[in-house]
Amino acid sequence: MSTTRRGFVGGVSAATVLLAGGAVRAQKGKYDDGASDTEIKIGHTNPYSGPASSYGVIGKAIDGYWRMVNDQGGINGRKVRFITLDDGYSPPKTVEVVRQLVEQEKVLCTFNTLGTPTNTAIHKYMNLKKVPHLFVATGASKWGKPKEFPWTMGFQPDYHTEGVIYAKHILANVKDPKIAVLMQNDDYGKDYYDGFREGLGKDVGKIVKHVTYEVTDPTVDSQVIQLKDAGTNVFFNIAIPKFAAQAMRKAAEIGWRPVQYLNNVSGQVSTTMKPAGFENVQGVITAAYLKDPTDKQWDDDADMKMWREWMAKYNPGGNVQDVNYVYAFAVSFTMHETLKKCGNELTRENLMRQAANHQKLKLPLLLPGISVSTSPTDFYPIQAVRLQRFKGETWELFGDVLAAESA
Q: What's the whole-model pTM score?
C-alpha cells in the first residue's frame, strides 16, 4: 500500500514493540487533499543523484520506515503512501517535482525535503499553497519562523546556533587562533558563517581567510591551498560530504595541520571521514545530537539494537555505519507521532497544529538529554547538541549538552 517511486520492504519485531499502536480500524474523519479513511499521502524529495547524492540513503530509509508502519496496520488504521522523487540537489528541479507532488499527486504534506538551497526554492510556494512543509532536512534558521512562514518547520539543530558553538569553543580552547573558513556559496553556507561570526563577537577579526565554492565545482583543492597559504591554524569546514572529505584530504596532502571543525551535516563516518582517510581526520571536532552507530558505547543500547534489527529487515543492503539511516529513523518517528496525534482530523491545519505541540518528545536514537519540543511560536524541534572529536575510526563525545540558549 505504501506506493513509492523507490521500493524498499520488510518488517521487524523490536520496532513493532517500540512503535505499536497503528493496527486499529480507521473511523470516518475530516480530511484535506492527501488523506482519506484508508490512506495518508506524503510527498518527499531527495538528491538520489547529483553532488549531494550521499544523502540519498535518507529517502530510502524513510521509505522503509513507512513500510514498517504499514505492516503494523498504518496510522490510526490508515496506510501511508510515501512518494519520494529525485531532485538532484537542483533548486529548479525541486520546484518542478514539488509542484508535481502538490498539484498532481495532491499530497497531504511534504516531509523531510532535503537541502537548504532546494527548500529555499519551494519555501514561499508551500506557504502560499498552505501545504505543511514539515521537518525539512536542513538546519537553516529560516525554517523556524512561524509568523512569516507558518507552514514550514525544521527538525535538526539550526546551523546558526551550531556556528556560534564552534566559535565559542575555538575562543576558549585555541591559543591565538588564525581562522580559515571554507563555505558552500549559498544560504546553507551563509547561515553557518553568520552564526560563526556572531559567536566570535569582538574577535571576528580572527577570521584570516574566508573562501567559497560552488556545488558545481569539481574540487575544492585550490580553496584549501589558499586557506593554508594565509597562515591559518584553525579550519572551519562548512561543506557537504563530498567537498568536506576532499578538503580534509587535501589539507593533509599539503601538510596543513590546523585545528579542524566540521559542520554536523557532514559528520558521517562512512560518507565523509572514511573517504577523507582516517589518518587525515584525527581530532576533527563536530556537533552531534544522534547516537552514532560506529560508536561502540551504544552497542548494547536498546535503541541501537532495535535500529539494527530494523536495518536488517527494512534496509538489508544499507550501511549500518552510516548515521544517515539513524537520522532517517528518528525524523520519521517524529512525523509518525505527529500524524498519530491528528487522530481522525487529517487536515493540513490540524497537522501543523500537532507538529507545533510536542513537549519533550523522546525520540529513539537521540543522545541522552536531548528531546523534541515545539510550540506555536517555536518551530525549532531540536535545540541542543554535544560536541564530539574524531578518534581512530569513530567519534568520541565530550563535554555537556549544549542548548541554544547556552551557546
A: 0.90
